[in-house]
Amino acid sequence: MIEYEGRVFRPPSEAYSLIVQVTIGCSHNKCTFCDMYKEKRFRVRKLEEVKADFDEARRMYRRVGRIFLADGDALMCRPEHMAEILRYIKKVFPECERVTSYGSPASILCKKQEDLNMLHDLGLEMIYLGLESGSDEVLRRINKGETADEIVRAGLMVKEAGMKLSVTCIAGLGSLELSEEHAIKTAGALSRMKPEYIGLLTLLFELPTPLMRDWQEGRFYLMNPIEIAHETLILLEHIDSEGSVFRANHASNYVNLAGTLNQDREAMCARLRKALEGKIKFKSEQYRAR
């Protein structure tokens, strides 16, 4: 069997994908809200190690329809390195329909547009990009490492290459102090990118992080379900991202929302208003998870 190094994370939509670690850890790994990959030091795995994992998977599985390239920032590989991996996937898994990976803003912006175009031509179909917030002040406080404009530019480069773009953001990340700014500017950044998929998570603390320590010591306010619903309503009221599939049905969310923008925006807003009126129950804390 394939042996993974440390904890392995993947987007919910990759639940049935073959996961192979192309890199170990996250190249940035400094976001104050995130507890992923903290036990790892970032590195790019050797091609022969990655190919050996694919060979093992070929022996194990009759059919592999989807492949997710882990860890947190597989796209940080040099273009030639990633190109060789994609060529090997085509050779070993000719039946594979989709190859995807996480991509940090830095890993995208350090590449030329023609590099991304090449990777798409070789089979990289979709990139998962963490926006987190469209507010530069929120991004500064969480030590994201890029501005909103830089993240938007990275997302647009992915789309220019012909890949699909899936963007995540996090409700409650600006606390009550920056809630409205966080909602409005996140809506603005998403509207500029118009990604194929938008995933809205809700801030939740489980394992120790710098932001969790700030909360425990009274320096950060963790918003309650009503405040999160208000913030989400503001975001939806300001977003203009025609055709984007919008999901806020993650285990962390208090109110499940699902629809396609902009046609289902009002229905999702109406659901939030019902929750605020007490007509829909918020998810209990005991059922929330990352």
TrEMBL record:
Coiled coil: none annotated. Keywords: Iron, Iron-sulfur, Metal-binding, S-adenosyl-L-methionine. Its cofactor is [4Fe-4S] cluster. InterPro entries: Aldolase_TIM, BchE-like, Elp3/MiaA/NifB-like_rSAM, rSAM, rSAM_sf. Pfam families: Radical_SAM (PF04055). Residues 10-240 form the Radical SAM core domain. It comes from the Bacteria. The keyword S-adenosyl-L-methionine applies. The keyword Hydrolase does not apply. This is Coproporphyrinogen III oxidase.
